[in-house]
Write a structure and sequence with these properties.
- By secondary structure, the chain is an alpha+beta fold.
- It has a domain at 2-63: Diaminopimelate Epimerase, Chain A, domain 1 (Roll), CATH 3.10.310.10.
- The protein has 1 helix and 4 strands; from the N terminus they run βαβββ.
- The chain has a 4-stranded mixed β-sheet with strand order 1-2-3-4.
């Protein structure tokens, strides 16, 4: 598979889709390659039920990634459009 910008997350998602479609079995590999010839190799390991509703697709991903940018998200809890109460699980204590 050739992708413009490959990622380990995208490779993992593709393996999950292929499992859902029934096109892979444990031990099968998928190599995603970008137009810049960078890529990741994913290996489908197994799938199992989780909580009766979902399947967990286990795989291994190998490759090299690089940080291209870093950003900061600012949340103003005084803004009436922001429901900070529903964000408590992702906000650390330092963000009041």
């Amino acid at each position: 598979m050739i992708c413009r910008s490959t990622t380990g997350t995208g490779t993992s998602a593709r393996l999950a889709l292929m499992h859902y479609e029934g096109t892979i079995k444990p031990g099968d590999r998928l190599e995603t390659v970008s137009l810049r010839e960078t890529g990741f190799i994913g290996e489908f390991v197994s799938a199992r039920e989780a909580g009766g509703k979902h399947q967990v697709v286990e795989n291994t991903i190998t490759g090299k990634s690089y940080v291209l940018a870093r950003s900061e998200i600012v949340i103003n809890c005084d803004d009436r459009m922001v429901e900070c109460g529903s964000l408590h699980h992702i906000l650390s204590s330092r963000h009041g």
